[in-house]
Design brief:
Length: 157
């Protein structure tokens, strides 16, 4: 009878230790996943903010009918770098899934296309700028959709 009591106590202790370790491991994985998601969210926000600020500057310059094409070109030539779009893109590449990275590259490419339209002398009213803005906007929407999808919790819907 004493052996059964000792065995039952030992088995209970082993089960308790294993269940505690399992629960701690699951909690640790969940916390790690949440930290990774927070890092991605911050990286995404900074990147989208940089894109938006650069886009706004390009649009502002493209609307100025009183400046010459050369003045407009000079104003927007470095706008992408000034807002750190490429630097924030490199940060995003460290945390984001490949799908998001590819769409981020496309959005930056389309933004550069819009900037190039203004550098080439077109204004907001010209069809070339309208098409470039549309292409950028579509790329940005696709990027944001992919970002949202990557931030969703697995199993939560």
């Amino acid at each position: 009878m004493q052996w059964t009591t000792i065995m039952a106590t030992a088995l209970g202790a082993v089960i308790g230790v294993v269940s505690t370790l399992t629960a701690d491991h699951v909690r640790w994985g969940r916390e790690l996943s949440e930290r990774d998601r927070d890092a991605m969210r911050a990286s995404y926000a900074l990147y989208v903010e940089a894109l938006t600020q650069a886009h706004d500057d390009i649009t502002q310059v493209s609307r100025d009918p009183q400046s010459s094409p050369e003045e407009r070109a000079e104003s927007v030539r470095t706008v992408i770098g000034r807002h750190g779009v490429y630097a924030k893109q490199h940060q995003l590449e460290l945390t984001a899934p490949l799908t998001v990275v590819r769409l981020a590259l496309k959005a930056a490419h389309e933004l550069a296309g819009y900037r190039d339209c203004v550098i080439n002398g077109f204004t907001r009213a010209d069809a070339e700028c309208t098409e470039a803005r549309r292409a950028y906007r579509e790329a940005r929407y696709s990027l944001i959709d992919a970002m949202r999808s990557s931030l969703e919790r697995r199993g939560a819907r």
